[in-house]
Amino acid sequence: MQAIIYHNHGSADVLQLEERPRPVVGSNEVLVRVRAAALNPVDCEIRQGMLRPVSSFGLPRIPGSDFAGEVVEVGPSVNHLGPGDPVYGMAPPLSGGAYAEYIALKTDKLAPMPKGITFEEAAAVPLVALTALQALRNLAHIKAGQEVFIHGGSGGVGTVAIQLAESFEARVTTSCSYRNTELVRELGADEVIDYTKKDLTKLENRYDIYFDVYGNMPFRRVKHLIRPRGRHVTTIIAPVNFLTAFWTRLRPGKQARVVVVKSKARDLDLIREIVEAGQLNPVVDKTYPLADAAAAQKYLETKRASGKVVLKVE
User: Fold this and answer.
1) What's the pLDDT score for residue 50?
2) Which pLDDT score, from 0 to 100, does residue 31 have?
3) Quick check: helix, strand or coil at residue 219?
4) Which CATH architecture best describes the domain 128-258?
C-alpha cells in the first residue's frame, strides 16, 4: 500500500510517500480502506519531535489519527461489522497510521460512518468532535441555558464545539478574527467577538463555561470571566495546566480542567446521531491528495485554516 512516512523528526519536508506492507488484522480489529484522513495539530507536533522521547520509539512512522473509509476485512472476534461497511474513527495519535491506503484498528476506536456526508467530511469529525464532546459534557458538565465562551471558534475543534454547545441548548459566545465571523454565526454562535479588535481579558459578560480551544487563554488569565461555580477547560496538555486543575479540585468554586481526548466507539455513535440529526455539520477548509501531505501540514501550521484540512486517499 502507499503511505506517508517519516523516518526522522523535522519540518513537514520529512514526509514522504512510500510503499509499505498492508497491516495485518488482529482478532478484535478491522482493516479499513482509507478514503480520507484529516489532519490535526498533534500530527505536526509529533512529527516535529515535541513529544520526544516517546515518539522516537515508533520511527519510521505513518502519521494521522482521523480517517473514514470502508471495511475490507474483519478479525475473527468481530461480528457487528463486515466488508463494505463505511466507518470512521480515530487512531491514538502516538500510534498514527491514517495517512495511508489502509489502516487496521480495534473496533472500540471506530464506528459506522454518519449517513448523508462524504468521506472527507466524516474524516474531519472524530478527533475534534470527541474533544469538544468530552470537554463540554464530561468536564464542563454543560447544561441548557448556560453561557458558554469558546475561544477559537473557527478552528477544527471550535467549529464543532459551537454546534455541540448549541445542541445542548446553551448560549454561545465565541472569538475569532474578522474574516471568520460569518462562518461561526452560520454554525450557531449567538455572539461573536473579534479578537483583533477587543481585549478578550476585559469582557463585560461572565460565563458558566470557558472553553479555551485556541490554547492561549489559561485559567489564570480569564478566571475573572468565569462565574463562581463555572469551569475552564483547555485543550493544551501542559504540566502547568494539570497542576492548576489539581489545585482547583481541592477547593469549591471555579474549576479548571484539561481535556485529554479518548477514542470511544460509543461517543462516535452519539456523534453520528448528532450529525444525522442535522445538529453538527463538518467544516472542511481544504482537501489535498495523499501525496501532498507535506503541503497540507504546512498549511495547517499557518493556523489560518477555517475548519479541517483533509487528505483524499484515491
Assistant:
1) 83
2) 98
3) helix
4) 3-Layer(aba) Sandwich (3.40)
